[in-house]
Amino acid sequence: MSAPTLIRLARPRAINPLRQSLIRSYATSSELKPNLSYTKPTHPDSTASSHSATQNTITDHSQYLLNTYVRPPILITHGKGLILTDTLKRDYLDFTAGIAVTALGHSDEGINAVINEQSQKLSHASNIYWNEHAGELAKSLVENTKKFGGLGFTQGGTTSDANAKVFFSNSGTEANEGALKFARAHGKVTGGEGKSGIVCFTNAFHGRSMGALSVTPNPKYQAPFAPLIPNVKVGKYNETSQEAIDALIDKDTCGVILEPIQGEGGVEQGDIEFLKMVAKRVREVGAVLIYDEIQCGLFRSGTMWAHSEFPIEAHPDIITMAKPLSNGFPIGAIMVRSKVAQTITPGMHGTTFGGQPLATAIGVHVLQRLSDPSFLASLKEKSEYLSTKMERLPKLFPSVIQEKLRGRGLIRGIGFRDTSKPSELVRLARERGVLLLTAGSDAVRFVPALTVSEEQIDQALGVVESCLSIIAEGGERA
Ligand SMILES: Cc1ncc(COP(=O)(O)O)c(C=O)c1O
After folding, report:
1. Are residues 90 and 145 in the same domain?
2. Counting CB atoms within 10 angstroms of each CB, which of 109, 172, 248, 386 has the fewest?
3. Is residue 267 in some structural domain?
4. What is the mean pLDDT of the chain?
């Protein structure tokens, strides 16, 4: 594996002493001082906006692409490791990993070799025939889940259940769509036609298809497309009132879906008490529990699944995954316990592309790299290092940043006191060469590639501190 390239930012310029003393006054401790090396923009959006070749391309393309995204005026052409490069040959340090996707970084040599080899052999032949890699990846997912824990398997593989099985899709949304269908199918077999209710939770994000959107209770996403599917109830995430949970999940419930760590919703973690109560009630009423680990799963949280180390009674019956599974090549998957697998028969569900040999050959390679003990040891070190750096932020900027840091491993978030500030931080950091994501209404998310180096963490958090200093001071001056 090639060593990650360090981003080169323009030489930082010192800010004037008056401003420096103002910013220092935001620190609660006299020894703790914010990193002010990056207060000056090095990657202004305006440079890209005035680059005519870039803007001509964007103008041309906007005539043909449906207008669904608000994008800054930059156009990315290359990626290597954690570095993305734009048309002006400016390097950005990518702390978004393509929205928690490129766990092994951009343009990884090992992945490129698999793509090269497999694409010359066979990319696609349909699910009418067996191929070499879909089963291999399914086996790797199940066996690694037995080893690391999850889906009813305690670490080392002990379980009351016989086995687990996998269905491959092409995206996270499609994985959740399938999981909801499987919950319905299981409900009909075990409880009859009326057992069709689905439960989701506040701030969830499960996707944009009609089913997945119906369990994504965000009015901004849902309202334009209503009416959505019926029989969906929304509970309060982390609500531990027994009465509320009993009323929410009843005998007509066939499935309950939740993210053990909410990604888009603001990097909130599910409290173990809440998860245990939900799981217990799900089992009482004979429904199935779906954990959407599309963003937090596959080692991003530090364990294979965000729930790997939870007590077994808080494990789900279905796991959905996608994003990093093929490091950016489209893929999704649903892994189910055997009691769910038994209710699915040929013809009930399917896909043209899902499980094709190219996507799944990449997945086999990715999983083998991510589950390597030395990779996991270094991931732990990096996560702890990031934590240490993040712990400075609420201390340095108590008037801006909420005290409690969010998430774990390399899915982390900082909450803001003022909801207009997360997007301001994202813009300020981008203009200083670091790409970040917002999360929910009040947070900024750090989801770098799992290959991130300590130097890159220093750089990203240095930029964040400089930008938070600007925000604490009341914003950028013209
Ligand atoms: C937790 C979660 N579920 C589902 C999805 C939807 O996945 P996709 O965009 O691959 O369809 C996402 C995407 O961000 C997600 O974070």
Report:
1. no
2. 109
3. yes
4. 93
pLDDT digit string (tens) for 320-336? Answer: 999 999 999 999 999 99
The answer to whether residue 78 sits within a structural domain is yes
pLDDT tens sequence across 269-286: 999 999 999 999 999 999
Residues 308 and 241 in one domain: yes
Distance 431 CA to ligand 1 centre (A): 27
Q: Where are the alpha helices (DSSP H) in 17-130?
A: 17-24, 45-49, 52-62, 97-100, 109-121
The letter for the amino acid at 317 is D
Paired with 437 in beta bridges are 445
Q: What is the CATH number of the domain that holds 234?
A: 3.40.640.10
Per-residue pLDDT tens digits for 333-386: 999 999 999 999 999 999 999 999 999 999 999 999 999 999 999 999 999 999
In a domain, 429, yes or no: yes
Written as one letter, the residue type at 291 is Y
- Judge residue 339's burial from the number of C-beta atoms within 10 Å of its C-beta, 0-12 exposed, 13-18 middle, 19 or more buried: middle
What total of structural domains would you count in the chain? 2
User: Domain residues for 36?
Assistant: 17-95+410-472
In the three-class reduction of DSSP (H, G, I as helix; E, B as strand; rest coil), residue 333 is classed as strand
Nearest residue CA, atom 7 of ligand 1?
Answer: 172
Spacing of C-alpha 239 from chain mean position: 23
Query: With 60 as the cut, is the pLDDT of residue 14 above it?
Result: no
d(C-alpha 154, C-alpha 156), whole Å: 6
Predicted pLDDT at 155: 77
User: Integer distance in angstroms from the first to the last C-alpha of the chain?
Assistant: 44
Going from the Cα of 220 to the center of ligand 1, the distance in angstroms, rounded, reads 16
Structure tokens at 455: 């130097």
